[in-house]
Amino acid sequence: MLTKDYINEVKTNGNGNIAKIIEGLKSTSNLSYFLENLGFLPSNFDGNVLLPYINYNNSNVRFWVVKNLGKLKNVKYIDPLSKVAREDKDSMVRREAVSSLGRMRNVKNIPVLISLLTDPDPKIIAQAIRGLLVFRGNETVDTHLKQLVHHPNEFIQQVIQKEYFPKQTNNSHLSHTESYDYLKNVVVNGDVREILQVIPEDSIHLTFTSPPYYNARDYSIYPSYKAYLQFLADVFEKVHRVTKEGRFFILNTSPIIIPRVSRQHSSKRYPIPFDIHPFLVEMGWEFIDDIVWLKPEASVKNRNAGFLQHRKPLAYKPNPVTEYLMVYRKKTDKLLDWNIREYEWKIVKESKVLGNYETSNVWRIDPTFDKSHSAVFPVELCNRVIKFYSFKGDVVFDPFAGSGTMGVAAKALERYFFLTEKDEKYFQIIKKNLGSKSLFANTESRFLSLNEFKELNKI
Questions:
Q1: 29 and 139 in one domain?
Q2: Can you list the pairs that 340-349 forms with residues at least 24 positions away whose Cβ atoms lie under 8 Å?
Q3: Maximum C-alpha span of the chain
Q4: Position 427 pLDDT exceeds 70
């Protein structure tokens, strides 16, 4: 019976014994299991016992033959591995052959790896790049790799950009964890576009917002859908500028329906999340996740009444019980770990998300209804976003603050809020909701006009 202990014992008894055992394995599954569990191979292991199986008719067997040959790092296997990398019919086997060549870290492999940079499979190219980066500083290697910055595949572009053409970091004197005091627990009444113009880059840790719906509420009237999207793009490009490197922007939105004018006309449904996405990617936001906010069906307007009665095809209209939280991150060459390491361990520890949490991308949260505002953020929605995407002491921003729920949640979670709201009526509601002194750092909330904020910004 084949076991890992048995395979290890066979391995220690020399190549002759291994060859004999392999020849006796008539079952493909047993052969695959044996090769998969060979584990560490001593430097004197003779891979020639594996070569007869490098063209075996089962791809899993070929994969493990190639992987084991790669462990030996012996240049005499360059030719057979190169042949597999170029000609095998299975992409996984080919990738493993390229990986095995790379792990040898031998200059003799450079021509082979360079030849694979024109392969039609981007994953093969990525493995070849990985093997060649060991030889950075070699003029030939660097020349060939730099050319890939213009490769049509975006992942390959990203790798080369990071390795050879890293983006210059901003010149802010702030540390990654800090922000300006004049942004902390501040609400500004004015057009967010004007407000953002006077804020330095590298100021905001997290933005979470729900923009005004396109002509679906009485507080948001735009001349056209194109103008509406351009307005959002203008705002979010400015948000991108003031966001710290590698930090998050979460956009809560959903398709909306503009009611029909009469029975002779149809209603119009606008896919806002999907139409705004290309703008966001183009301006430098990297898409990370889509979170679905699921509401109880009883809480939404019923569109099913007619279909329920007649059941005629083509007329089905589901009740929209979801909204999207589209999660983006400001593009950076740095990994998330870099962001985390910028904070003191005490802050990281205090900011950890404790207890039960939602593990899926479907968040079941009841909506909030308020006479003062027709589209209020539920506090629980803000709580989750703030806890998952910021640290204690961070500045969190909502450019369309509405009734100020984001600020309420930020105060409770020991973050600073920065809110902007154009409508005077809602600005006064925020003032009422956030007028008390913060429990956090005794920082009083400040409510400013655009001109007052500009003057404060000069100090």
A1: yes
A2: 342/175, 342/176, 342/177, 343/177, 343/391, 344/177, 347/177, 347/391, 347/392, 347/393, 348/391
A3: 87
A4: yes
In a domain, 317, yes or no: no
CB of 254 within 8 A of CB of 322?
yes
Mean pLDDT computed over 393-402 = 96
Do 13 and 107 fall within a single domain? yes
Alpha helices in 223-370 (DSSP H): 225-242, 272-282, 305-310, 336-341, 345-350
Region for residue 300 given its phi and psi (left: phi exceeds 0; alpha: psi -120 to 50; beta: otherwise): beta
Query: For residue range 66-75, what is the model confidence (pLDDT) as tens digits?
Result: 999 999 888 9
- Measure the CA angle with vertex 382, ends 234 and 290; round to 5°: 65
State the Rg of the chain over Cα: 29
| Residue 175: inside a domain | no
Number of domains in the chain: 2
The two tokens of residue 229 are 């999207």
Q: What value does the mean pLDDT of the chain take?
A: 89
How many residues does this entry show for the chain?
Answer: 459
Give the H or E element holding residue 145: helix 139-147
313 is a domain residue: no
Residue 81's nearest CA partner among 59, 55, 42 is 55
Q: Judge whether 256 and 216 are in contact, CB under 8 Å.
A: yes
The pLDDT-based confidence of 375 (bands split at 50, 70, 90) is low
Q: Are strands 322-330 and 243-253 parallel, antiparallel or unpaired?
A: antiparallel
146-163 pLDDT, tens digit each? 999 999 999 999 899 989
| CATH code, domain with 9 | 1.25.10.10
In terms of domains, do 445 and 400 share one?
yes
Residue 110 domain boundaries: 4-164
